[in-house]
Design brief:
The chain has one domain (8-140, 184-231): 3-Layer(aba) Sandwich (Undecaprenyl pyrophosphate synthetase). Helix content is 42%, strand content 14%. The protein is built from 8 helices and 6 strands. A 6-stranded parallel sheet has the order 3-4-2-1-5-6, sandwiched between helices. α2 (33-54) packs parallel to α3, α2 (33-54) packs across α7 and α3 (73-96) packs parallel to α4 (112-125). The chain is globular, with a radius of gyration of 19 Å. The structure holds 3-methylbut-3-enyl trihydrogen diphosphate (2 copies) and magnesium ion (MG).
Length: 251
């Protein structure tokens, strides 16, 4: 099994996933898009468990984008229902396994009852440190940057921030989850080679892994494959390969 090819000391700390392909998975089986989403929920369960077992410290799942609000009403309702159901059925196990839940996005657009449930789950699990599970819901990367810029402008106006001091580090501290590291690995299922407004700031140096596997078919073994691929790459951050391999020498 691929897991034997994994180097345990080089597990990416933060894995982010664009969970795409539910609709096409369903279409190929002559089933409704909603059934595709329902099947996708099983993948969420399996991948959260799998990531935790593999030692990933932060797992961010793109569950619903700001643009997804414009899908047919019935589909939006189904996606919201599934998130609700996930919280009902999985939070106990997550908590038992030391998993901390977080959420990023414009959460004020969610129905109050769902928002309350998310807040309660976050509160209940906030001391857990085994793994952080971040749901990006009602999330847009540009919106996150705009929201940060607004708060920065307000702080500048209130004299809490000197704009001349503004740098990347301070800017990033205004994003939705400033305490979390940037994703090391960004996985997209369902073949498309695009970022679709996900974590625009944070993926600056993430390794991208795109797979043809549709989200409802994605399981721990697929995650392992992605991790093995990641471990075979060299992250250069703009440097030369020689510099990366011998950082102390003047290569
Ligand atoms: C991903 O699957 C789920 C969400 C975007 C919420 P899609 O519903 O986008 O599936 P495809 O891309 O149409 O196959
Ligand atoms: C990205 O998938 C959003 C989520 C997975 C939540 P989409 O299906 O919405 O993205 P596009 O439309 O293919 O870019
Ligand atoms: Mg899609």
């Amino acid at each position: 099994m691929a897991q034997r090819r994994l180097q345990p000391d080089r597990i990416p700390r933060h894995v982010a996933i664009i969970m795409d392909g539910n609709g096409r998975w369903a279409e190929a089986r002559e089933r409704s898009r909603n059934e595709g989403h329902r099947a996708g929920l099983e993948s969420v369960r399996a991948v959260v468990r799998g990531a935790h077992e593999l030692g990933v410290k932060v797992l961010t799942l793109y569950a619903f984008s700001l643009e997804n609000w414009d899908r047919p009403k019935e589909e939006v309702e189904q996606l919201m229902r599934l998130l609700d159901r996930y919280l009902d059925s999985e939070i106990d196990e997550c908590h038992r396994n030391g998993i901390r839940l977080r959420a990023i996005g414009r959460l004020d657009r969610l129905a109050p009852a769902l928002r309350k449930k998310i807040d309660a789950a976050i509160e209940r699990t906030h001391e857990n440190r085994e793994m952080t599970l971040v749901f990006a819901v009602s999330y847009g990367g540009r919106a996150e940057i705009v929201d940060a810029a607004q708060r920065i402008a307000r702080d500048a106006e209130d004299g809490k921030l000197d704009v001349n001091q503004l740098d990347e580090k301070i800017f990033a501290s205004y994003l939705y989850a400033p305490d979390l590291p940037d994703p090391d690995l960004l996985i997209r299922t369902g073949s498309e080679s695009r970022v679709s407004n996900f974590l625009l700031w944070q993926v600056a140096y993430s390794e991208l892994y795109i797979t043809g596997t549709m989200w409802p078919d994605f399981r721990k073994t697929h995650l392992v494959e992605a991790l093995v691929d990641y471990q075979n790459r060299e992250r250069r951050y703009g440097l030369t390969s020689a510099q990366v391999r011998a950082p102390s020498e003047d290569a």
